[in-house]
Amino acid sequence: MVQKAKILLVDDRPENLLALEAILSALDQTLVRASSGEEALKALLTDDFAVILLDVQMPGMDGFETAAHIKRRERTRDIPIIFLTAINHGPHHTFRGYAAGAVDYISKPFDPWVLRAKVSVFVELYMKNCKLREQAALLRLQLEGDGHTGGEPAGLLAELSARLAAVEEQAEALSKQLDDESADAAAVATAAHLERKLTGLRRALDALEPGTGGSAGVLPAQS
């Protein structure tokens, strides 16, 4: 069973949260509400999120300050943030959003189709990263077990290689899609980072094949 990704929606106005839920419900992911910056930071303490949709203007802690806190935390600093704002103060205001760590800055009213498409890209990248971490963890567990029992890992390596091939194929298709759609630079960079991690894991698996002289020490660290 495929676990759903979580998307954090942050806005102090209930009607705006309801509208976002209506737009993103078609993605069939888990949507989590937060009505303030403080509430968003609390949610980020316990859950992992694929992307954050963050309103700029909120009473108390505004979107910029909330984003700054998110980027300072090691656990959350790599989560993509899409700023949503009902005001437009020109390039300087937009620059402040990107400087705060946002991957995109969208003015209201926005096109629901465009927003859904942008969010879906980050959800897909998040899911592929999760699959990659699972494969690496499974390989490490098996190698540790074989180190104690002297078992033969060939069967598991073949299974892992097949699973990794499926993830590689999906990542390649996603990269082509991003190129075709002239996607956000941040999404392209994230996809490239994922491909580099896939390449490292593939090399590690190849090195562990019988007759290659490899060892578990070549397995790349996963972040």
Query: Number of DSSP strands?
Result: 5
Instruction: Name the average pLDDT.
Output: 79
What class would the helix/strand composition place it in?
alpha/beta
Oligomer designation: single chain
The low-pLDDT segments are 212-223
Distance between the termini: 24 Å
In spatial order, strands of the major sheet run 2-1-3-4-5
Strand content: 5-15%
The total count of helices amounts to 7
H/E topology pattern: EHEHEHEHEHHH
Question: Measured on Cα atoms, how large is the radius of gyration?
Answer: 20 Å
Helix content: 55-70%
Give the overall form: elongated
Largest sheet: 5 strands, parallel
Write the layout of secondary structure elements.
Blueprint: E1 6-10, H1 14-24, E2 30-34, H2 37-46, E3 51-55, H3 63-72, E4 81-85, H4 91-99, E5 104-107, H5 112-149, H6 154-180, H7 185-208
Parallel strand pairs: 1-2, 1-3, 3-4, 4-5
Please provide a written account of the structure.
By secondary structure, the protein is an alpha/beta fold. The chain has helices at residues 14-24, 37-46, 63-72, 91-99, 112-149, 154-180, 185-208; strands at 6-10, 30-34, 51-55, 81-85, 104-107. It contains seven helices and five strands; from the N terminus they run βαβαβαβαβααα. Helix 2 (37-46) runs parallel beside helix 3 (63-72), helix 5 (112-149) packs parallel to helix 7 (185-208) and helix 6 runs antiparallel to helix 7. The protein starts with 5 loop residues before the first strand and ends in a 15-residue tail after the last helix.
